Amino acid sequence: MYTPAITGTGVFTPSETVTNAELVTAFNAYADLYNAKHADEIAAGTVEAKDHSSEEFIVKASGIEQRYVMVKDGILDPTVMYPKMRQRSDDEPSIMAEMALKAANIALENAGKTAADVGAVICAASNLERAYPAVAIEIQDLLGIQGFAFDMNVACSSATFGIQAAADMIRSGSIRSALVINPEICSAHIEWRDRDCHFIFGDVATATLLEREEDAAGPYFAVKSTRCATSFSNNIRNNNGFLRRSRPDGMKDRRDMQFMQNGRKVFKEVVPMVSQHIMDHMADEHLGADDIKRLWLHQANKSMNDFIGKKVLGRTPEPHEQPNILQDYANTSSAGSIITFAKHSADLKDGDHGLICSFGAGYSVGSVLVEKHG
Ligand code: COA
Predict the structure, then answer these.
(1) Nearest C-alpha to atom 10 of ligand 1 is from which residue?
(2) Which long-range contacts (CB under 8 A, 24 or more apart) does 239-243 make?
(3) What integer pLDDT is reported at residue 97 of this predicted model?
(4) Confidence (pLDDT) at 137
(5) 186 C-beta closer than 6 A to ligand 1
(6) Separation of 199 CA from ligand 1 center, angstroms?
(7) Ligand 1 lined by 361 (C-beta under 6 Å)
(8) How far is the CA of 264 from the centre of ligand 1 (A)?
């Protein structure tokens, strides 16, 4: 058996941002247009008027201040309210492969490695651009990697489940190394016309290089162990899929074809599930709260992370013990905990332990316990 290690990470951040102020202005203009258009039905009580959104609510309820997006055009137009992307030909790289490539190259450089050192590619994300061929195989081709590649989707937990798959293959010897890549274009799956969730998501791509410990060219994080768990829930759901055309009204502009959630229930049910999951994982490894130097948590909601950190450590965590990046990136689905790890792990000392944990739709929760070396 070999010890798998995280030897490099990469974050590709899109150049466009949408601030809360821009978001709220666009939403309120959309709501005014909608209410004017449906004035008679609203007066008759058959259609509900849309309330305005507010910056104060967004920051207070979520901790999010802005988000990055791949394509800003359309999002802030009250007559559009989705990103308007250009059609790419089948002979040019797809948008997910393009952003994945940028994150992957940063991770390789960070690890002091090249594509020749990689044996497999896993593209793990909440949404995949097409049914087939796998985006991962396109990324593999663009990077010039031998071996194999596949896509997987476990929603917000895709990255940690992908890391578990790669780590287990490295441990068993079936591969020497793998890139786990998370290109997330959440701006295309949220409903910008729904004030309950229009502020939640942003776009990004992250990449994690895993290798045998002995192949590391610099400081690395040994993967001590991983834990994945799932439990079915309809509280976060998106009904879009290949059967859409076949169903009555499937092609209509339907609310359930974008991200939907019962946010309050998610909050209430996921916080205890994740806290227990992390504590069980630590107990299995005979680690107490004082043995964990840092938690790199999924980035959905600041209060959620505050609750989880407090439960796991048994006290209010210091900011450096449980860093957040969601104020800048919003919820980037599976990529959130990896951005946090990539940006807030270099200062850990030899022998320090930390834990990456993502959670979300499914429900799903995945944790990766790491130990710094070098
Ligand atoms: N602007 C102003 N008011 C808003 C608003 C907005 N954009 N969106 C909702 N509100 C209103 C609601 O209508 C509600 O009004 P009411 O009390 O009159 O009914 C009030 O603000 C509170 O809304 P609620 O949805 O209960 O807020 P919340 O405190 O639960 O926060 C979330 C909402 C989504 C931020 C929070 O529930 C959450 O983070 N849940 C978990 C999300 C998560 O992790 N999802 C995983 C996705 S992968």
Answers:
(1) 196
(2) 240/189, 242/131
(3) 98
(4) 98
(5) no
(6) 10
(7) yes
(8) 7
Q: Is residue 308 in contact with ligand 1, taking CB distance under 6 Å?
A: no
Q: What is the mean pLDDT of each run of 10 residues along the chain (374 residues)?
A: 98 98 98 98 97 98 97 98 97 98 98 98 98 98 98 98 98 98 98 98 98 98 98 98 96 97 96 98 97 98 96 95 97 98 98 98 98 96
Catalytic (active-site) positions: 156
The DSSP secondary-structure symbol of 201 reads B
Q: Which atom of ligand 1 is nearest to the CA of 270?
A: 44
Which one of 57, 154, 337 would you pick to mutate in the ligand 1 pocket, going by the greatest count of ligand atoms within 8 A of its CB? 57
Distance 61 CA to ligand 1 centre (A): 6
Q: What residue's CA is closest to ligand 1, atom 36?
A: 263
Handedness of CA 64, 68, 72, 74 (dihedral sign): negative
Q: Is 5 helix (H, G, I), strand (E, B) or coil?
A: strand
The C-alpha atoms of residue 114 and residue 305 are separated, in whole angstroms, by 35
Residue 87, pLDDT score: 97
* pTM > 0.90: yes
3-state secondary structure (DSSP) of residue 309:
helix
pLDDT computed for residue 191 by the predictor: 98
| Residue closest by Cα to atom 37 of ligand 1 | 263
Q: How far is CA 309 from CA 27, 101, 227, 333, 366, in A?
A: 33, 33, 18, 19, 16
Q: What is the 3-state secondary structure (H, E, C) of 84-130?
A: CCCCCCCCCCCHHHHHHHHHHHHHHHHHCCCHHHCCEEEEECCCCCC
- Phi/psi-derived region of residue 155, left when phi > 0, alpha when psi is between -120 and 50, beta in every other case: left
Query: How many helices and strands, by DSSP H and E, does the chain display?
Result: 10, 13
